[in-house]
Amino acid sequence: MKKGIDGDWDVDMSVLMGANVANEVAKGDFAEATIGCTNEANGLKWCKLFNTSDFAVTAVKDVAGAELCGAMKNVVALGAGFSDGLGYGGNTKAAIIRIGLKEMQKFCQLFYGDRNIQKDTFLESCGVADLVTTCFGGRNRKCAEIFAKGVISGSPKAWDVIEAEELNGQKLQGTGTCIDVMKAIAAKKAEKDFPLFVQIHKIAFEGSRPETIIEINAGSGYY
């Protein structure tokens, strides 16, 4: 996003990401956020601007890392939604979240190794916290649950139909990101390094059954 906006304008860009679902923020529930910035001075300015008693903001000198976490967490949320649609419990979802976080880190290392992405960024609100809240309450999880239930019941719904029926004009991010992530992985012939991302794509777009989400434990190297 920053690369697209910057252009030739020589504008320094920061990003605000994190575990802050909009309707909860609007209610005044406590939430955190992460500012991804290019320098500490800018980060401090943004923190002073956004920090309130119920909205805590911290800064990381890692624009790319914050942005990538915000994008890829939506792919993992699809897997979490498939798990929910199957009726699996917290143990399975926790495994999907854990493996998803590892694959997010690996993806950043493989494709953005020259962007100085910081390991600690994944432990900030834009990282693991946003991943957790999205996998439990986000729109991508919700729609993936409906998708899985439709397949299981024999009455599958297309993603665009689910989006139109459930999101009141909002858009799914996870499906589009999943396609882009899979294109990148396939171009590098790195499928064996991303068994969860690959399986999520297979279920979402290649006709694999939702039940196969747990097949990532076979020969994945995670166990």
What are the SSEs and their pairings?
Elements: H1 2-6, E1 15-17, H2 22-27, E2 31-36, H3 40-50, E3 55-60, H4 63-85, H5 90-111, H6 125-137, H7 139-153, H8 159-166, H9 174-187, H10 195-205
Parallel strand pairs: 2-3
Antiparallel strand pairs: 1-2
Overall average residue pLDDT: 93
SSE string, helix = H, strand = E?
HEHEHEHHHHHHH
**What is the count of DSSP helices, taking H or I runs of 4+ residues?**
10
| Total strand segments | 3
Helix-strand category: mainly alpha
Report how far apart the termini are.
35 Å
Give a brief outline of the structure.
This protein is mainly alpha-helical and about 220 residues long. The chain has helices spanning about 1-5, 20-25, 40-50, 65-85, 90-110, 125-135, 140-155, 160-165, 175-185, 195-205, and strands spanning about 15, 30-35, 55-60. Helix 4 (about 65-85) packs parallel to helix 6 (about 125-135) and helix 9 crosses helix 10 (about 195-205).
Walk me through the structure.
The protein has 223 residues and is mainly α. Helix content is 57%, strand content 7%. The chain is built from ten helices and three strands, in the order H-E-H-E-H-E-H-H-H-H-H-H-H. The mean pLDDT is 93.
Sum up the structure in keywords.
10 helices, mainly alpha, 3 strands, 223 residues, 3-stranded mixed sheet
